[in-house]
Write a structure and sequence with these properties.
InterPro entries: Aminoacid_DH-like_N_sf, NAD(P)-bd_dom_sf, Shikimate_DH-bd_N, Shikimate_DH_fam
Pathway: Metabolic intermediate biosynthesis; chorismate biosynthesis; chorismate from D-erythrose 4-phosphate and phosphoenolpyruvate: step 4/7
Strand order of the largest sheet: 2-1-3-5-6-4
Strand content: 15-25%
Pfam family, one: Shikimate_dh_N
GO cellular component, one term: cytosol
CATH superfamily of the largest domain: NAD(P)-binding Rossmann-like Domain
Shape: globular
CATH topology of the largest domain: Rossmann fold
Largest sheet: 6 strands, mixed
EC number: 1.1.1.-
Length: 284
C-alpha cells in the first residue's frame, strides 16, 4: 500500500482523498490517502506529524492551511515553483529526503489554460493575499498577466506579497479596500482568493455592480462550486475558471509527483470523478 497524507486544519470535508484514491484505482495502484488533521497551527505540530508519517513509510503528503509556508523549512530539496512562490502544498518523501513542490501554482496554470486557452490574463485584480493567493499570483504572470492589483484586509500580507512579486520583476500594486470596486472596472480579470463564498463564510467579496467589462474571473473557493462571485461574473458575461479546476489539476500534478505515474488523458478522470461524487455545476 502506498500511503499519502494531507496535513492541515479543518480538513475533514476535503475531497482530496476521493480524488487520489480514485486515481489509484484507475491506474491500478494500491493508494491510500489519509487526512492528518491537526489541532495546533504551530510549526512544531506540523514537524511532529511530518516525522510521524515519514516513520510510517508514507510516500508523500499534501499540505494546506496554515502550514504551506512553514512546510518549506522542513524540505531538503525545493522545486523551482517553491523557490518562486515561497510556499509548498506537496511534499514527496523519497530516499530519506523531503522534496517540496507547489501544485497550487502548476494546477492554477493548467486550469486557466484548459478553460481559457491562450487568452492573456492582462490586468488583474486579486482579492486575498493568503496561502493559495500567493501561488495564484505568481501563476497569473505565467498566463499573460501584465499588471496585478492586490487587495486584502491584512494590508501587511498584501504588501509582503506585492514586494515579492515586484522583486521577481512582476508589476504589482496594493489596492486599498475602498478602491477595489473602481479598480475592478479597469482590469481584464477578477480573482477571489479569500474564503468569502465558502459554505461556512457565504457572500461575495466584490460588489455585484463591479462586475462587467472584464474578460474572465477565477474563484479559488470550490465548496460550493458555483459561488456568488462566479455567478455574478457569469451573469456579466465573463469567462469562468473555477476553484474546482484548481483543486482537480493540483491534485493530478501531486498524484504524478507522489507515484511517478502519469495520469494521461484527464477527460475520463474528470467525467468519472464528477459523476461518482456528484460534483454538479451550472457554470462549468
Amino acid at each position: 500500500m502506498q500511503n499519502i497524507g494531507l496535513i492541515g486544519q479543518s480538513i475533514s470535508a476535503s475531497r482530496a482523498p476521493s480524488l487520489h484514491n480514485m486515481l489509484g484505482e484507475l491506474k491500478g495502484l494500491p493508494v491510500k490517502y489519509e487526512l492528518q488533521e491537526l489541532d495546533s497551527p504551530e510549526a512544531a505540530a506540523f514537524k511532529e506529524r511530518l516525522a510521524s508519517i515519514r516513520e510510517q513509510g508514507f510516500i508523500g503528503t499534501n499540505v494546506t492551511f496554515p502550514f504551506k509556508q512553514i512546510a518549506v523549512d522542513s524540505a531538503d530539496e525545493v522545486n523551482d515553483s517553491v523557490k518562486k512562490v515561497g510556499s509548498t502544498n506537496t511534499l514527496l518523501l523519497k530516499d530519506g529526503k523531503v522534496c517540496a513542490f507547489n501544485t497550487d501554482y502548476t494546477g492554477f496554470i493548467r486550469g486557466y489554460r484548459t478553460r481559457l486557452g491562450d487568452l492573456p490574463a492582462g490586468k488583474v485584480l486579486m482579492i486575498g493575499a493568503g496561502g493559495v493567493g500567493r501561488a495564484v499570483a505568481f501563476g497569473l504572470f505565467e498566463v499573460g498577466a501584465i499588471e496585478l492589483f492586490i487587495s486584502d484586509l491584512n494590508v501587511a500580507g498584501a504588501e509582503a506579497l506585492a514586494e515579492a512579486l515586484n522583486e521577481a520583476g512582476y508589476k504589482t500594486t496594493v489596492v486599498a479596500t475602498g478602491d477595489v470596486a473602481a479598480v475592478a472596472k479597469e482590469v481584464d480579470g477578477l480573482v477571489n482568493c479569500t474564503p468569502v463564498g465558502h459554505y461556512k463564510t457565504p457572500g461575495n467579496p466584490l460588489a455585484e455592480s463591479a462586475f462587467g467589462g472584464q474578460k474572465w474571473a477565477f474563484d479559488a473557493v470550490y465548496t460550493p462550486l458555483d459561488t456568488e462571485f462566479l455567478k455574478a461574473a457569469n451573469a456579466a458575461g465573463l469567462k469562468i475558471v473555477s476553484g474546482f479546476d484548481l483543486f482537480f489539476y493540483q491534485g493530478l500534478d501531486a498524484f504524478e509527483i507522489f507515484t511517478g505515474v502519469e495520469v494521461g488523458d484527464v477527460t475520463p478522470v474528470w467525467d468519472q470523478f464528477r459523476e461518482k461524487y456528484d460534483v454538479v455545476s451550472d457554470l462549468i
